[in-house]
Amino acid sequence: MDNNKKVRVRNRSNSIVIYRVPDLGVRREFAPGETKILPAGELMALAQKSGGLSILRDELYIDDPETVSETTMHVEPEYYLDDNGVIDLLTNGSVDALLDCLDFAPGGVIDLVQKYALDLPVTDTRKIAAIKEKTGFDIQLALKHRAELAAEEAAAAEETGSGMKVEKASQRRVQPATTKDTASNGGRRATPNYKVVTPKEG
After folding, report:
1. Domain identity same for 88 and 101
2. DSSP letters spanning 132-189
3. CB neighbour list of residue 164: distance below 8 Å, 6 or more residues apart
4. Both 87 and 154 in a single domain?
5. Do 13 and 54 lie in a common domain?
6. pTM of the model
7. Which of these, 55, 59, 71, lies nearest to 5 by C-alpha position?
8. Neighbouring residues of 146: CB distance < 8 A, sequence distance ≥ 6
9. Torsions phi, psi of 33, nearest 5?
10. CA–CA dist 199, 154 (Å, integer)
11. Could you read off the pLDDT of 148-187 as tens digits, one per residue?
């Protein structure tokens, strides 16, 4: 195999992935969802390091079956599921196909399943139950929390930022004859001190 060959490698987990290959003087850091073009030889070297194969199998996705084979990784068909494949599985796939995915897919694919199950969202109660049973991820509870957060953000937008709520100043019905304070011309008596509401996390 040509170790100078370049292959696409993507972090499909929802975590930052960092690895080092001291022999090559290499340190790589992947943000969630980030893709890098890397030499195949670097991946071969990583596969020889302690924990290297688990990073390549569970967190990263090598978009080249030949390179995957050269690393000696044993992968199930679910390893090759990308974002579109996961979306298709959740929307059109059978419950049994989803269960196989949840049983045999690497961790990065499971992260994608959870992400798109919430984003779509999945409405098939059997698939919702399967995902909860296999991963502990409760889609219905997550959707409830998302709705609550959206409501809090909407309420905050009415009071702060670009969505500041502006109230009409009170007007006097009878103008006082002796005072010339700001109230006499419809102004406020004091600067309002609105409480800024910060949306709660999760």
Report:
1. yes
2. HHHH---HHHHHHHHHHHHHHHHHHHHHSGGG---PPPP--SS--SS--SGGGGT--S
3. 158
4. yes
5. yes
6. 0.71
7. 71
8. 118
9. 80, 0
10. 9
11. 999 998 888 887 765 555 555 566 656 555 544 444 445 4
